[in-house]
């Protein structure tokens, strides 16, 4: 297959995992001194794309030392078990709260099937392969690994999920942020810059922890965020303020509609109106129907997460 990837900066490649649609879910390949690491994997069905990228770039599979998982949601980690089968020297680094689910993904599988159905699981995720425990290493907060001569530092980043970590790459002044620094699609870029929104997905969304995490990450004074959704963006204090503003905006919608009949639909409608309003203010000229289509999946899962948060804090 022909992979889709973008060589962006400092020997970092953004790979389109082609999960659900193009320009939606990224994995990253980091290179230095002939060694390599993946950050996130996409789902099981994304693995051929990752391997094809290695082939296109003439990187041998035994040159990959690490697979780093920002968190175990399946669009980020679902392909890890299959990918590592093809990388004989690789070990997987993951948050301590996620390690057991890589070794035994049965609960992850059951949870996804319960919410979305078995047809969705097979069609869009494919499978989940357990990983041998001796190939899984806990990524400790402030711990480091070295890819060639390049140092990558792990940071515990709860908020989106308790099992979330980010990776600080001092060489590029960038954070591989998973979902912690938000979602930003290139079709919403305008002359005002990027538009960043929060993925308030179930089941561990915690807005207060998330905002504290953002403040902690900004002390690093990053230049870039390498987003899973989608690609590299410049990220500064204004970016952080935008993300925090919209976390608060989502929360206000959930609180306002907490006791509404058919709460889930009401929150979805509220989120859509909110998002269309901010894209209009941002100068997005994309047709409304196209915006609705792009936001559809995010709105569904964000509304679910806000509902779980309301129930937990009722």
Fill in the keyword field for this structure.
314 residues, alpha/beta, Metallo-beta-lactamase, Chain A, 2 domains, seven-stranded mixed β-sheet, 10 helices, globular
Largest β-sheet summary: 7 strands, mixed
Based on secondary structure, the structural category is alpha/beta
CATH level-four homologous superfamily name of the largest domain: Ribonuclease Z/Hydroxyacylglutathione hydrolase-like
Q: Count the DSSP helices.
A: 10
* Helix percentage range: 25-40%
Reading off the top of the CATH hierarchy, the class of the largest domain is best stated as: Alpha Beta
Order of helices and strands, N to C? EEEEHEHHEHHHEEEEEHEEHHH
**In oligomeric terms, what are we looking at?**
single chain
> Numbering strands along the chain, what is their spatial order in the largest sheet?
1-2-3-4-5-6-7
Q: pLDDT under 50 segments (min length 5)? A: none
CATH topology of the largest domain: Metallo-beta-lactamase, Chain A
Secondary structure: number of strands: 13
Supply the CATH architecture of the largest domain: 4-Layer Sandwich
Average pLDDT metric: 96
